[in-house]
Amino acid sequence: MRPVVLSEGTQGLPGIRVRVAFAFVVAVCVFAAIPSAAVAAPGDLDPGFGSGGKVTTAIGAGHDVAYAVAVQADGKIVAAGECVIGSNGVFCLARYEGTLTGPATVPGAPALNTAAGGISSVALGWSAPVSDGGSAVTGYRVYRGTSAGAETLLVAPAGTGTSYTDATAVNGTTYFFKVSAVNAVGEGGLSNELSATPAGTPTVPSAPSGLTATALSRSRIGLAWTDNAANETGFRIERSFDGSSDWRQISTVAANVTTHMHARQRPLTTFFYRVCATNAAGGSTYSNVASATTLGW
Fold first, then answer.
1. Cα 261 to Cα 54, 196, 211, 213, 223, distances in angstroms
2. Triad 39, 42, 47: Cα angle to 5°
3. pLDDT tens digits, residue range 226-252?
4. What is the DSSP code (8-state) at residue 69?
5. Residue 25 lies in a domain
6. Residue 180 is part of a domain; what is its CATH number?
7. Rounded distance, CA 49 to CA 31, Å?
Protein backbone atom coordinates (compact mmCIF):
# COMPACT_ATOMS: atom_id res chain seq x y z
CA MET A 1 0.00 0.00 0.00
CA ARG A 2 1.72 3.18 -1.18
CA PRO A 3 1.04 6.51 0.65
CA VAL A 4 0.89 9.90 -1.02
CA VAL A 5 1.36 13.04 1.10
CA LEU A 6 -1.36 15.44 0.04
CA SER A 7 -0.54 18.50 2.10
CA GLU A 8 1.72 19.86 4.81
CA GLY A 9 1.44 22.82 7.13
CA THR A 10 2.94 24.33 10.25
CA GLN A 11 -0.21 24.10 12.35
CA GLY A 12 0.32 21.83 15.37
CA LEU A 13 -2.41 19.46 16.51
CA PRO A 14 -3.02 18.74 20.19
CA GLY A 15 -3.00 15.12 21.26
CA ILE A 16 -1.05 12.32 22.77
CA ARG A 17 2.18 11.57 20.96
CA VAL A 18 2.75 7.93 20.06
CA ARG A 19 5.70 6.32 18.34
CA VAL A 20 3.75 4.84 15.45
CA ALA A 21 3.39 5.76 11.80
CA PHE A 22 0.02 6.50 10.30
CA ALA A 23 -0.48 3.03 8.87
CA PHE A 24 -0.48 1.29 12.28
CA VAL A 25 -3.54 3.28 13.27
CA VAL A 26 -4.97 2.63 9.82
CA ALA A 27 -4.64 -1.12 10.30
CA VAL A 28 -6.58 -1.05 13.56
CA CYS A 29 -9.36 1.09 12.10
CA VAL A 30 -9.64 -0.89 8.89
CA PHE A 31 -10.18 -4.08 10.83
CA ALA A 32 -13.02 -2.51 12.76
CA ALA A 33 -14.54 -0.96 9.63
CA ILE A 34 -14.88 -4.20 7.63
CA PRO A 35 -15.69 -7.08 10.00
CA SER A 36 -16.72 -9.27 7.02
CA ALA A 37 -13.06 -9.34 5.99
CA ALA A 38 -11.80 -10.23 9.46
CA VAL A 39 -9.63 -13.30 9.89
CA ALA A 40 -8.84 -12.68 13.58
CA ALA A 41 -10.86 -12.12 16.73
CA PRO A 42 -12.52 -8.71 17.25
CA GLY A 43 -9.99 -6.25 18.64
CA ASP A 44 -7.00 -8.07 17.13
CA LEU A 45 -5.05 -6.88 14.13
CA ASP A 46 -6.01 -8.40 10.79
CA PRO A 47 -2.97 -10.48 9.69
CA GLY A 48 -4.09 -10.16 6.08
CA PHE A 49 -3.42 -6.41 6.16
CA GLY A 50 0.19 -5.43 5.48
CA SER A 51 2.68 -7.33 7.66
CA GLY A 52 1.06 -8.79 10.74
CA GLY A 53 -1.76 -6.27 10.52
CA LYS A 54 0.54 -3.24 10.26
CA VAL A 55 1.78 -0.96 7.49
CA THR A 56 4.56 1.39 8.56
CA THR A 57 5.06 4.65 6.67
CA ALA A 58 8.03 6.93 7.41
CA ILE A 59 7.03 10.54 6.63
CA GLY A 60 8.90 12.76 9.06
CA ALA A 61 12.17 12.43 10.96
CA GLY A 62 10.57 10.53 13.84
CA HIS A 63 8.07 10.86 16.68
CA ASP A 64 5.22 11.08 14.16
CA VAL A 65 1.75 11.55 15.59
CA ALA A 66 -1.36 10.01 14.00
CA TYR A 67 -4.63 11.61 15.09
CA ALA A 68 -7.34 10.35 12.74
CA VAL A 69 -8.02 7.90 9.92
CA ALA A 70 -10.92 7.51 7.48
CA VAL A 71 -11.92 5.19 4.65
CA GLN A 72 -13.25 7.10 1.65
CA ALA A 73 -16.12 5.97 -0.56
CA ASP A 74 -13.70 4.69 -3.22
CA GLY A 75 -11.99 2.40 -0.69
CA LYS A 76 -8.91 4.59 -0.23
CA ILE A 77 -7.54 5.16 3.29
CA VAL A 78 -6.73 8.69 4.50
CA ALA A 79 -4.67 9.37 7.66
CA ALA A 80 -4.09 12.76 9.31
CA GLY A 81 -1.53 13.76 11.92
CA GLU A 82 1.64 15.66 12.76
CA CYS A 83 5.19 14.94 11.57
CA VAL A 84 8.60 16.30 12.49
CA ILE A 85 10.30 17.73 9.39
CA GLY A 86 13.54 19.48 10.20
CA SER A 87 12.99 21.16 13.55
CA ASN A 88 9.30 21.87 12.91
CA GLY A 89 6.19 19.90 13.70
CA VAL A 90 3.97 20.12 10.64
CA PHE A 91 0.48 18.92 9.74
CA CYS A 92 0.44 15.99 7.30
CA LEU A 93 -2.34 14.30 5.38
CA ALA A 94 -1.62 10.96 3.64
CA ARG A 95 -3.87 9.08 1.24
CA TYR A 96 -3.05 5.43 0.67
CA GLU A 97 -3.32 4.31 -2.95
CA GLY A 98 -4.35 0.72 -2.24
CA THR A 99 -8.04 -0.16 -2.39
CA LEU A 100 -9.69 -1.62 0.68
CA THR A 101 -10.94 -5.10 -0.18
CA GLY A 102 -11.66 -8.19 1.83
CA PRO A 103 -11.25 -11.86 0.92
CA ALA A 104 -13.62 -13.30 -1.68
CA THR A 105 -16.83 -14.95 -0.53
CA VAL A 106 -19.50 -17.05 -2.22
CA PRO A 107 -21.74 -15.12 -4.66
CA GLY A 108 -25.15 -13.78 -3.82
CA ALA A 109 -28.37 -15.45 -4.90
CA PRO A 110 -29.54 -15.07 -8.51
CA ALA A 111 -33.05 -13.79 -9.28
CA LEU A 112 -35.19 -16.45 -10.96
CA ASN A 113 -37.31 -14.44 -13.38
CA THR A 114 -39.26 -16.92 -15.51
CA ALA A 115 -40.41 -20.54 -15.44
CA ALA A 116 -42.52 -21.28 -18.53
CA GLY A 117 -44.12 -24.67 -19.04
CA GLY A 118 -43.96 -26.10 -22.54
CA ILE A 119 -44.64 -29.52 -24.00
CA SER A 120 -42.78 -31.93 -21.70
CA SER A 121 -40.43 -29.09 -20.78
CA VAL A 122 -39.96 -26.02 -18.60
CA ALA A 123 -37.88 -23.04 -19.77
CA LEU A 124 -36.10 -21.12 -16.99
CA GLY A 125 -34.49 -17.68 -17.07
CA TRP A 126 -32.66 -15.86 -14.30
CA SER A 127 -30.47 -12.83 -13.60
CA ALA A 128 -26.90 -12.99 -12.32
CA PRO A 129 -26.45 -12.19 -8.61
CA VAL A 130 -25.91 -8.56 -7.69
CA SER A 131 -22.66 -9.53 -5.94
CA ASP A 132 -20.22 -12.14 -7.19
CA GLY A 133 -18.49 -12.16 -3.80
CA GLY A 134 -15.29 -10.69 -5.24
CA SER A 135 -14.70 -13.74 -7.46
CA ALA A 136 -16.27 -14.19 -10.90
CA VAL A 137 -19.28 -16.47 -11.20
CA THR A 138 -18.19 -19.71 -12.89
CA GLY A 139 -21.56 -21.44 -13.22
CA TYR A 140 -25.05 -22.06 -11.90
CA ARG A 141 -26.97 -24.95 -10.36
CA VAL A 142 -30.65 -25.63 -11.05
CA TYR A 143 -32.80 -27.22 -8.35
CA ARG A 144 -36.20 -28.86 -8.96
CA GLY A 145 -38.91 -30.44 -6.84
CA THR A 146 -42.56 -31.46 -7.05
CA SER A 147 -43.52 -29.53 -3.91
CA ALA A 148 -42.67 -26.05 -2.70
CA GLY A 149 -39.41 -25.82 -0.73
CA ALA A 150 -38.41 -29.41 -1.51
CA GLU A 151 -36.08 -28.81 -4.47
CA THR A 152 -33.03 -31.00 -5.03
CA LEU A 153 -30.18 -30.52 -7.49
CA LEU A 154 -31.32 -31.18 -11.06
CA VAL A 155 -28.38 -30.03 -13.16
CA ALA A 156 -25.32 -27.78 -13.25
CA PRO A 157 -25.42 -26.45 -16.85
CA ALA A 158 -22.08 -25.85 -18.53
CA GLY A 159 -20.95 -22.23 -18.84
CA THR A 160 -22.31 -19.08 -17.27
CA GLY A 161 -25.51 -18.64 -19.28
CA THR A 162 -28.61 -17.48 -17.44
CA SER A 163 -31.22 -19.78 -18.98
CA TYR A 164 -31.94 -23.49 -19.04
CA THR A 165 -34.69 -25.72 -20.45
CA ASP A 166 -35.65 -28.77 -18.43
CA ALA A 167 -36.55 -31.30 -21.11
CA THR A 168 -37.20 -34.12 -18.61
CA ALA A 169 -40.47 -32.68 -17.27
CA VAL A 170 -43.68 -34.68 -17.50
CA ASN A 171 -46.83 -33.07 -18.84
CA GLY A 172 -49.41 -32.35 -16.12
CA THR A 173 -46.88 -32.33 -13.25
CA THR A 174 -46.21 -29.07 -11.42
CA TYR A 175 -42.52 -28.43 -10.77
CA PHE A 176 -40.86 -25.95 -8.41
CA PHE A 177 -37.47 -24.44 -9.25
CA LYS A 178 -34.64 -22.50 -7.61
CA VAL A 179 -31.18 -21.51 -8.90
CA SER A 180 -27.83 -20.82 -7.22
CA ALA A 181 -24.57 -19.27 -8.42
CA VAL A 182 -21.09 -20.74 -7.98
CA ASN A 183 -17.64 -19.11 -7.91
CA ALA A 184 -14.14 -20.23 -6.94
CA VAL A 185 -15.04 -19.98 -3.24
CA GLY A 186 -18.17 -22.12 -3.45
CA GLU A 187 -21.92 -22.10 -3.96
CA GLY A 188 -24.06 -19.14 -2.94
CA GLY A 189 -27.61 -19.08 -1.65
CA LEU A 190 -30.69 -20.21 -3.54
CA SER A 191 -32.84 -17.85 -5.58
CA ASN A 192 -36.52 -17.20 -5.14
CA GLU A 193 -38.84 -20.05 -6.10
CA LEU A 194 -41.00 -20.30 -9.23
CA SER A 195 -43.23 -23.10 -10.48
CA ALA A 196 -44.53 -24.26 -13.84
CA THR A 197 -46.65 -27.08 -15.24
CA PRO A 198 -45.77 -28.48 -18.66
CA ALA A 199 -48.81 -29.45 -20.71
CA GLY A 200 -50.34 -29.54 -24.15
CA THR A 201 -50.29 -31.54 -27.34
CA PRO A 202 -47.31 -31.16 -29.66
CA THR A 203 -47.91 -29.28 -32.89
CA VAL A 204 -45.96 -29.68 -36.11
CA PRO A 205 -43.20 -27.04 -36.37
CA SER A 206 -43.06 -24.37 -39.04
CA ALA A 207 -41.07 -25.18 -42.17
CA PRO A 208 -37.55 -23.85 -42.63
CA SER A 209 -36.90 -21.48 -45.54
CA GLY A 210 -34.11 -19.85 -47.51
CA LEU A 211 -32.19 -23.09 -48.10
CA THR A 212 -28.92 -22.56 -50.00
CA ALA A 213 -26.39 -25.10 -51.31
CA THR A 214 -22.78 -24.10 -52.04
CA ALA A 215 -20.08 -26.29 -53.59
CA LEU A 216 -16.98 -26.09 -51.42
CA SER A 217 -14.71 -28.66 -53.07
CA ARG A 218 -14.76 -31.74 -55.30
CA SER A 219 -16.54 -33.69 -52.57
CA ARG A 220 -18.22 -31.24 -50.19
CA ILE A 221 -21.36 -29.09 -50.38
CA GLY A 222 -22.36 -26.67 -47.63
CA LEU A 223 -26.04 -26.17 -46.74
CA ALA A 224 -27.64 -23.31 -44.79
CA TRP A 225 -31.26 -22.41 -44.02
CA THR A 226 -33.48 -20.22 -41.83
CA ASP A 227 -35.13 -21.71 -38.74
CA ASN A 228 -38.75 -20.48 -38.53
CA ALA A 229 -39.90 -22.78 -35.70
CA ALA A 230 -39.77 -22.40 -31.94
CA ASN A 231 -40.76 -25.97 -31.09
CA GLU A 232 -38.62 -28.18 -33.30
CA THR A 233 -36.46 -30.90 -31.82
CA GLY A 234 -34.31 -31.15 -34.93
CA PHE A 235 -34.08 -30.97 -38.72
CA ARG A 236 -34.12 -33.72 -41.36
CA ILE A 237 -32.00 -33.20 -44.49
CA GLU A 238 -32.83 -35.01 -47.73
CA ARG A 239 -31.08 -35.33 -51.12
CA SER A 240 -32.17 -36.09 -54.67
CA PHE A 241 -30.32 -36.40 -57.99
CA ASP A 242 -33.06 -34.71 -60.05
CA GLY A 243 -34.84 -32.48 -57.53
CA SER A 244 -38.25 -34.11 -57.94
CA SER A 245 -38.01 -37.81 -57.06
CA ASP A 246 -36.10 -40.40 -55.08
CA TRP A 247 -35.57 -38.13 -52.06
CA ARG A 248 -33.46 -39.82 -49.39
CA GLN A 249 -32.55 -38.73 -45.88
CA ILE A 250 -28.82 -38.07 -45.58
CA SER A 251 -28.59 -36.56 -42.10
CA THR A 252 -30.33 -34.97 -39.11
CA VAL A 253 -29.21 -32.07 -36.94
CA ALA A 254 -30.34 -30.78 -33.56
CA ALA A 255 -32.83 -27.99 -32.86
CA ASN A 256 -31.65 -24.46 -33.75
CA VAL A 257 -28.84 -25.78 -35.98
CA THR A 258 -29.10 -24.13 -39.40
CA THR A 259 -26.08 -25.47 -41.32
CA HIS A 260 -24.81 -28.84 -42.53
CA MET A 261 -21.80 -30.10 -44.48
CA HIS A 262 -22.54 -32.86 -47.02
CA ALA A 263 -19.22 -34.58 -47.64
CA ARG A 264 -17.72 -37.54 -49.56
CA GLN A 265 -19.54 -36.83 -52.83
CA ARG A 266 -18.48 -37.43 -56.41
CA PRO A 267 -16.84 -34.52 -58.30
CA LEU A 268 -18.73 -32.73 -61.06
CA THR A 269 -22.05 -34.05 -59.79
CA THR A 270 -25.21 -32.02 -59.18
CA PHE A 271 -27.19 -32.68 -56.01
CA PHE A 272 -30.57 -31.30 -54.91
CA TYR A 273 -31.49 -30.75 -51.25
CA ARG A 274 -34.48 -29.99 -49.05
CA VAL A 275 -34.93 -29.66 -45.26
CA CYS A 276 -37.83 -30.05 -42.84
CA ALA A 277 -38.19 -29.34 -39.09
CA THR A 278 -39.28 -32.20 -36.81
CA ASN A 279 -40.66 -32.82 -33.32
CA ALA A 280 -42.87 -35.38 -31.56
CA ALA A 281 -45.85 -34.36 -33.70
CA GLY A 282 -44.04 -35.12 -36.95
CA GLY A 283 -42.29 -33.21 -39.70
CA SER A 284 -43.03 -29.81 -41.15
CA THR A 285 -43.55 -29.13 -44.81
CA TYR A 286 -40.28 -28.96 -46.72
CA SER A 287 -38.14 -25.94 -47.41
CA ASN A 288 -37.41 -24.75 -50.91
CA VAL A 289 -35.17 -27.01 -53.02
CA ALA A 290 -31.56 -25.92 -53.48
CA SER A 291 -28.87 -27.46 -55.68
CA ALA A 292 -25.12 -27.33 -56.19
CA THR A 293 -22.53 -29.10 -58.33
CA THR A 294 -19.32 -30.37 -56.79
CA LEU A 295 -16.11 -28.96 -58.24
CA GLY A 296 -14.11 -30.79 -60.89
CA TRP A 297 -10.63 -32.24 -60.87
1. 65, 39, 13, 10, 6
2. 35
3. 999 988 999 999 999 999 999 999 999
4. E
5. yes
6. 2.60.40.10
7. 9
